[in-house]
Design goal:
The protein is an alpha/beta fold and about 290 residues long. The chain folds into two domains: about 70 residues, no CATH class; about 210 residues, P-loop containing nucleotide triphosphate hydrolases (Rossmann fold), CATH 3.40.50. The protein is built from twelve helices and nine strands. Strand 7, helix 9 and strand 8 form a beta-alpha-beta unit. Helix 5 runs parallel beside helix 6 and helix 8 runs parallel beside helix 9. The longest helix is centred in the first third of the chain and has 25 residues. The chain is elongated, with a radius of gyration of 29 Å.
Length: about 290
């Protein structure tokens, strides 16, 4: 990098009038060019690079680089990919993911389904896996719906992590039951819960897990309805997880949403994904007792 900067500065210092260097070194200059080096990656040749020195009014040579142009470009691509992975990992670390699902990705989720599920149960779950993996964000989201224990949270965490890696934008996970409990507390916990809602509304991607938990406080109901309304209006994607039907959603939010607008908006805003089949917890327990 320093050599490139020095060469650029020397080039910019070339005289603009009268006799001066042409577009490149002449035959005499080339004769003084040092012997080529050996690329440390592929073993090919690397050529010494020249620059015109305005001070000496002659061509000067930099030592041959350690990598040929192709290998240098490959190194830069690896470096950029590493920087993206580090940035994505930092963003995922700020997303407040549950600790038991934080390490999951789509590959591990697929292997887990192969280990415990079979037949139509396996096929149904893998259809949900494929629907989540093929989702690329945009202005809409996903609505994962299914019984307890079928892996909805794992799928939504995998989807969040893949989205962050692709977009390098911030995401936030919000567990409706935990957040509802914090709203019922006093002091700092309640203040933090209200601030968390603002962060969820403004995040690049928001996840609302266990949306239709029973006995949501009126403030929590209003906050969740507001979150969905704002994010839909502003074109921000949202991933929603629930085990409730549209009728159950309407019943559980009837205090602040008597006309059932929430369920109607979710149907328009989020693509439905059925996460069906047997509970992973049940299958793992049965496998442990064999």
């Amino acid at each position: 990098m320093q050599a490139n900067t020095y060469r650029q500065a020397e080039t910019e210092a070339r005289p603009t009038g009268g006799p001066g260097p042409g577009p490149g070194p002449g035959p005499g200059d080339m004769a003084r060019r040092p012997a080529p080096g050996v690329c440390l990656d592929c073993g090919g040749q690397t050529q010494a690079q020249g620059f015109y020195s305005a001070f000496h009014k002659a061509w000067r040579w930099l030592a041959a680089p350690n990598l040929c142009p192709a290998c240098e470009e490959a190194r830069l691509r690896r470096e950029r990919a590493g920087e993206r992975r580090a940035q994505a990992a930092e963003l995922v670390g700020r997303a407040r993911l549950p600790s038991d699902a934080r390490a999951w990705d789509f590959g591990q989720a697929w292997d887990g389904s192969q280990a415990f599920k079979h037949g139509e149960d396996l096929a149904a779950w893998q259809r949900a896996w494929q629907a989540c993996k093929s989702w690329h964000g945009g202005r809409t989201g996903l609505l994962l719906r299914g019984p307890t224990g079928t892996g909805k949270t794992v799928l939504v965490v995998c989807t969040l992590k893949a989205w962050v890696a692709d977009k390098l934008d911030g995401a936030l996970y919000l567990s409706a039951p935990d957040w509802n409990g914090d709203l019922g507390a006093k002091g700092p916990r309640r203040t933090a819960a209200r601030e968390l809602l603002v962060r969820a509304i403004e995040a690049g991607l928001a996840v609302v897990d266990d949306l239709a938990v029973d006995r949501l406080r009126a403030e929590a109901q209003r906050g969740l309805v507001r979150l969905i309304d704002r994010r839909q209006a502003e074109g921000r994607p949202t991933l929603v997880v629930t085990n409730a039907s549209d009728l159950e959603l309407a019943r559980r939010f009837r205090r602040v949403d008597p006309h059932g607008r929430l369920a109607d908006r979710l149907a328009e805003y989020c693509r439905p994904v059925a996460v069906e089949g047997l509970s992973f917890r049940q299958l793992k327990a049965e496998a442990a007792w064999r």
